[in-house]
Amino acid sequence: MSENRTEVLTGAAVLAVAIGFFVWAGQGVGLGRETDSYELRASFRSVEGVTVGTDVRLAGVKVGTVTSLALNPHTFFADATVSLKNNVSLPTDSAILVSSEGLLGGAFVELQPGGNLENLAPGDEIEDTQGAVSVISLMMKFVDGSGSSTPAPAEPPQ
Question: What is the pLDDT of residue 142?
Fold first, then answer.
């Protein structure tokens, strides 16, 4: 009987550790809600590389996460909701953009604060947005000659 009790206690301990790990991992990828945060909305032309749980950064420091992404069927833009820490107050003329960590790096959402004296309230929409820039399309423009540095033909003398 003591072996049976030991097995049950060991199994319960393993189960408790597994549940604790999944809760911790879920918070690490942005699945858990932070109680000391508020949400803002933004509409992007393209959110390529951004998913739910993507970092939101201000001056390179993580200040929040992307909590939802959905396609707006009327505008065909991607509507995003971001959750920011309560101690981050953004002016109403702030900008939000999709940035890349380099040529091969992942995407993140960057906040650029404006200079207005009034701040965005929870649930407000950031109007100034810039979607993801496709590195492939930029490289194709360069290869096709759109980005060539050949000089323009000289004008004939008069």
Answer: 76
| Assigned domain for 156 exists | no
Best CA proximity match to 40, nearest among 104, 89, 103, 106:
89
Average confidence (pLDDT) over 19-39:
71
Q: DSSP character for 157?
A: P
Q: How far apart are CA 99 and CA 108, in angstroms?
A: 5
Of 22-26, 41-45, 91-95, the poorest mean pLDDT is in 22-26
25 shares its domain with 44: no
Strand partners, 70: 79
- Domain span holding position 91: 35-144
Q: Is the per-residue pLDDT at 27 higher than 80?
A: no
Asked if residue 55 and residue 22 are part of one domain, the reply reads no
pLDDT tens digits for range 92-115? 999 999 888 776 678 889 999 988
Alpha helices in 37-158 (DSSP H): 135-144
What is the chain's length? 158
Q: What are phi and psi of 135, to 5 degrees?
A: -65, -35
